[in-house]
């Protein structure tokens, strides 16, 4: 692979794309924003014109463009599998906003296509690429709080006020689990590994919208006594946190999943000696994500690691869904 910038095509203008990922692509030394495909050009023309972004009508023109190397997909959940598959079959690398797909068999299919064609396939959880996450991981590895015993992670916020919000849309695979629950589910794996199971879970449903609006789960690391408890949902006081309890202390972050670019992050360490605060320098974890994606493109081992990550996340999602049918 030569050193030219790879062209990225974006499907749709979701808020996360407009606010964070598209600006990160524009700033990236590895990628070039080629164009954005939209099925509602009128709605987004001002954004395109203000930022001097090339645009096309619909998504197919992005997928079929031979000049585009990478496709970024921030579409509603129910469209992830369809368009990721189309992009992979056109021999394009793919970044998909969580969840990669809503069904386990679909994730397996996407992984198979990507691996067969030596393509990168990344489910985007940008918190993975923030230094505060790496600091927590290294702290556990170095036994700063002794032996890890228990994890607690929460991601919840007040009810979206607009009843037409896609989070309430059953047809689009909305609901709190896919919107917030997948985050603490994902981060649990960073500390417990892939050899884990769901020992208990509960999803709470809204009768009006027929989607889950809250939930909880307990994950156990097999052949050990280490476990993680997660909670998530709408209609609650805002929480975005992880707490790691060890034999000699506790380490935690109050803003683990969506630490704002450009602002310092804080890690808190609590032991018998008192409470200590660690300041993590300001950074943009969306730019960090693109840096990592560039590494995946060049490293078969990293690509295979992401296939495994994709599968394991979807396996756990599938187990929770099956427990709550």
Explain what the structure shows.
- The chain has 325 residues and is an alpha/beta fold.
- The chain contains nine helices and 14 strands.
- The strands form two sheets. Strands 8-9-10-7-11-12-13-14 form an eight-stranded mixed beta sheet. A six-stranded parallel beta sheet has the order 3-2-1-4-5-6, sandwiched between helices.
- Helix 4 runs parallel beside helix 5 (104-116) and helix 8 (285-298) crosses helix 9 (300-323).
- It is globular, with a radius of gyration of 20 Å.
- The termini are far apart.
- The model has no long low-confidence stretch (mean pLDDT 96).
Poorly predicted segments: none
- Structure classification: alpha/beta
Number of strands: 14
Strand order of the largest sheet: 8-9-10-7-11-12-13-14
Throw out a few tags for this protein.
alpha/beta; globular; single chain; 36% helix; 325 residues; eight-stranded mixed sheet; six-stranded parallel sheet
Topology of helices and strands:
Elements: E1 6-11, H1 15-27, E2 31-38, H2 41-50, E3 55-57, H3 60-63, E4 70-73, H4 80-89, E5 93-97, H5 104-116, E6 121-124, H6 131-141, E7 148-157, H7 176-192, E8 196-206, E9 211-221, E10 227-234, E11 239-246, E12 250-253, E13 265-271, E14 274-280, H8 285-298, H9 300-323
Parallel strand pairs: 1-2, 1-4, 2-3, 4-5, 5-6, 7-10
Antiparallel strand pairs: 7-11, 8-9, 9-10, 11-12, 12-13, 13-14
């Amino acid at each position: 692979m030569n050193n030219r910038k790879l062209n990225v095509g974006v499907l749709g203008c979701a808020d996360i794309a407009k606010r964070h990922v598209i600006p990160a692509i524009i700033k990236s030394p590895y990628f070039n924003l080629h164009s954005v495909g939209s099925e509602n050009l009128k709605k987004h023309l001002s954004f395109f014109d203000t930022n001097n972004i090339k645009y096309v009508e619909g998504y197919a023109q992005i997928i079929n463009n031979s000049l585009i190397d990478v496709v970024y997909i921030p579409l509603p959940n129910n469209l992830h599998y369809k368009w990721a598959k189309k992009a992979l079959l056109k021999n394009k690398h793919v970044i998909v906003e969580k969840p990669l797909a809503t069904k386990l068999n679909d994730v397996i299919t996407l992984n198979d296509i990507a691996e067969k064609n030596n393509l990168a396939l990344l489910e985007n959880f940008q918190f993975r690429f923030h230094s505060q996450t790496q600091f927590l991981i290294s702290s556990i590895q170095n036994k700063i709080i002794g032996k890890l015993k228990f994890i607690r992670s929460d991601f919840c916020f007040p009810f979206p006020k607009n009843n037409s919000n896609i989070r309430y849309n059953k047809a689009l695979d909305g609901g709190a689990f896919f919107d917030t629950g997948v985050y603490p589910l994902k981060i649990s794996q960073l500390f417990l590994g892939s050899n884990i199971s769901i020992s208990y879970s509960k999803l709470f449903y809204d009768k009006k919208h027929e989607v889950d609006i809250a939930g909880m789960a307990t994950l156990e690391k097999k052949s050990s006594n280490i476990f993680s408890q997660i909670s998530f949902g709408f209609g609650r006081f805002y929480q975005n946190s992880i707490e790691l309890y060890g034999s000699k202390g506790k380490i935690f972050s109050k803003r683990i999943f969506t630490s704002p670019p450009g602002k310092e992050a804080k890690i808190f360490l609590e032991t018998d000696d008192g409470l200590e605060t660690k300041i993590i320098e300001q950074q943009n974890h969306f730019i960090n994500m693109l840096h990592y994606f560039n590494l995946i493109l060049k490293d078969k081992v990293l690509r295979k690691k992401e296939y495994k990550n994709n599968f394991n996340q979807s396996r756990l999602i599938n187990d929770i869904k099956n427990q709550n049918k």
